[in-house]
Amino acid sequence: MLSLHNVTKTYQNGHETLHALNQVSLSFKPGDVAFLLGASGSGKSTLLNILSGLDTPTEGKISIDGIDTKNFSKKQWAIYRNHYIGFIFQEYNLIEHLTALENVALPLIFQGVSQKEAQERARIELEKIGLAKHIDKKPLSLSGGQQQRVAIARAFVTNPKVIMADEPTGALDIELGKKVIEYLIENAKDKVVIVVTHDEDLSNAYANRVVNIADGHIVEDSNQTPLNVIKEGRMDLVEPKMRLSLLFKFAKNNIASRMFRNILTSAIVSIGFIAILLLTFMIGGISGSITDTLAMIIPPDEYHIHHLEDTNITHAHYDRIRDYDGIETLRYNISASLDSEARQNRHTFIYEPMPLDQIAFERDGDFYGELPENDDEVVISLRTALQIRDMQSVDEDSYEYLFNLVDGLTIDIMHDQNRIETVTIVGMAADNMFASPMVYMLYDALLDVVETTDPSGEHTASLVATLNIRSESEIQTLTQTLYDEEDLIMRNVFGEMTGQIESVMNNALRWFIGVALITLIVSGILIGLVLYTSVLERIREIGILTALGARSKNIRMIFLLESGLSGLMSALIAIAASIGIASFLNRLFNSFIQTPLNLITGGNINFTLLSPGIIPILIVLVAGVVYAMFAGAIPSQYASKLNAVHALRKE
Length: 651
What we know:
This protein has 651 residues and is of the alpha+beta class. The chain contains 20 helices and 22 strands. It folds into three domains: 239 residues, P-loop containing nucleotide triphosphate hydrolases (Rossmann fold, 3-Layer(aba) Sandwich), CATH 3.40.50; 191 residues, no CATH class; 191 residues, no CATH class. Strand 18 and strand 19 form a beta hairpin. The longest helix has 50 residues.
């Protein structure tokens, strides 16, 4: 039973109040084939819209199977339309980008029916109405009569209690109109059928009840159903749902139908993201190149240990802390220099003060020669060998040749211009061409040098440790232990320097991104305008979905997903363009700068101008989608608030 009790619907036209319906009371029961007759503007369509919940009365009461709808939420009205009502419209109101089968299955999918079952039931309805050969065609490929039959199949597919038809024959010829009405009545014998029409011949031929409306009043009801009091029941129905896949399909289809406009919009929006990515790539490339160069000079895994009060480290400190947990190797350094001549070949070279180290070292590169066995034997670093031979660099393939040039040379270790020790080179550690020049000797021999330099032990010295721990918390624990127990400070010079470089680069990046964000703000406005245009172009579709039971949040999500897809396109365009531009600029840089640099350094310094990174790419990918959805929030909200009645009337 479907009833209206003293329903009034008014509209304001300036200061004038217009009555579309005025104190209307009607009741419909299963089996009624009620034709609503009246002139245009009499209130027929308003009555139908109120009965379906697409419009709300100004006054009065609507009851559905005894349930008072006064406090119905939008969700409950959506449930009612989806389960109780089957709509047939004069203009068919099919979704143009869906096939006939998909249009008919749509109300079932809203009910939560699986896509497979929904399409099977839709296929059966289309076969019943004679459209088995047209199920995969889209509406624009069908004739008017075929489109109306698709609309009828859609109305019946959920087996609703009420069929509401608004001028269902208005766009058809007389004979086809009769066939539509005959099919409608034949297949709706146990339902309430309400047909809005102005065709009295049709009503006389097929109606078992005719309701005449004029100026918002019921002027005649040929078979009035008594307004019986029915005990209030309950609507125990499944909430209409639009699966994410269906929402995504609507958004994708709309993007595809306006592909050129969306690609153009996405390309414009991508400019801001391209700027951000290129700046990030450049900062990453420069920062990474500087860090790699520093790593050639300063070993990343070395920790320098100094006294808290800036006094010298003694060998006693070395003896105490070399067995601390976490310390893998420990070197004891003193500052000294080599004589300006290598005595055996009288080769003169300029040499800055350098550390003098214990031989217990890690050989990261190749090792040539032998380890010292006597106090007067030493191993030198690659950098020391280069300075002895007055060379700037050497290819890796020539390391052995370089060692042969210095093997067996006798050199003097100097302190304060005084010769301390004459030693012989027996080995070379090809560890790092750009590291500080080093001479490695046995620890006992080193202590003799210390005693010779300053018997009190108050010489210039330090400890260099490599650790067998990696986690930051463990390193901090060791640092604190050395501070508490030995008054020593442990510092990672490489980490400090790279941290400062990273800080400078990040500050520069933030400033550049701030400038690029101005472009993105303008792009966000563009996304909002384009989505708003899309909403205006699809107002009728919004009305159709609402009539079929879609909720406001479903409509909102369709347009949010559409803006998200647009943002995804922008991000993908930006990523592809940025990688392409970065590759082109790197080739130019390599041709004009890196190649000459390789000639100067022997290929030992590799500098990258722009370095694409996966993290900024992923950030832009996610940010592009989120930002576009944020920009599309207002148009999406506007779409979800559209009045369904006005939307269905939109041409």
